[in-house]
Amino acid sequence: MRILVTRRYLPMRKVEPEMVIDQAIVDRAGRVLIARRTALDEYMIEALKKMRVPGIYIREGEEEKDAQEEKKPAVPEAIQKKYDKVKVEDPAKVKLSESVRARVAEGIKYLYQDVKAANFTDTTRTITNELMRAIEDNEAIAVDISALKVSDEYTFKHSVDVATMAMIVAKRYGMTEQQVYEIGIAGLLHDIGKSQIPNDLLNKASRLSDTEFERMKQHSVLGYRILTDKQDLSDAIKMGVLQHHEKTDGSGYPMGVGMLQINPFARIISVADIYDALVTERPYKKPFSPRDAVEMIMSMTGELDIEVMRCFMESVILYPVGTDVELSNGEIARVIENSPHYVLRPKVLGLTTGKVYDLATDFGCANIIIL
User: Fold this and answer.
1) How many domains is the chain built from?
2) Per the domain annotation, does 275 fall within a domain?
3) In angstroms, rounded to a whole number, what is the distance separating the alpha carbons of residues 186 and 180?
4) pLDDT digit string (tens) for 160-196?
């Protein structure tokens, strides 16, 4: 049985105790004050009003999943044997142990709490070392974004996601080991300027006004200023933070420069930042599917570095081997092989017919897509 769950925006004057909030509330340091799906009490509501939060999303109804729904579809023995025979394992992906996740999450929180801390750079390097080690330990050349989660809080998760993706893409791009390491630092710190943005603006669930958006856009400059006096961080790291919202056609910010003036770190971080922002749920938007996010990035050839886009496409696994997908011909299929050149069109095995669909290279499958 499945009960419909709805998500509704309410101004604070209409919020009542026992309502379930459907967004996380964080302070300017990125610390979670109220976790998503918390039943609100009078104290929390009063605190939100004092913070001048104009309104929040609430969750109504509950979702129950039948045990049968969570199981993979039953597969005939013959087809299971064929799957085991023809599947080709994905390239090594970045994996973070639970202990590493905990240390990384705690380190990110510390950085956002005090950007003037004496050991700010050391903490950043410690986190980046953990990510670098995770990449090197299993010779990872790809990333499954759904497997990276280090925290329920967006700021911390986003920082680690972007840093890890940027490192993998930089590696494929041909950067040196030192450059891969430094772009990891830049990725972790690319949004550090948001620690200086007012809390009510960061948490606003409705559309930002033009004035508010201009204020939010200052975070890249604020981040650069935070890092300016940190002599032990390279200029490339600082420029990566400053320019990660620049576009190759000059339409970005804060400087509006073109391709040749944008630091390579920033060009890589930009793609990782856009992808992760698209696939992550935020108070003001629902997440895009990985497929839709990739297609949106593919449409931005005039704004993003095309070579970086190619390296990104070859590094992100959207449908890990073993994933069940629905095809446009109505059949449920299981992914048996991915191609780095055709991230949206893996090779799959029909679980009813036992037919192999090579969505990437078989012209007979040209009209079949993954739904």
Assistant:
1) 3
2) yes
3) 10
4) 889 989 999 999 999 999 999 999 999 999 999 998 9
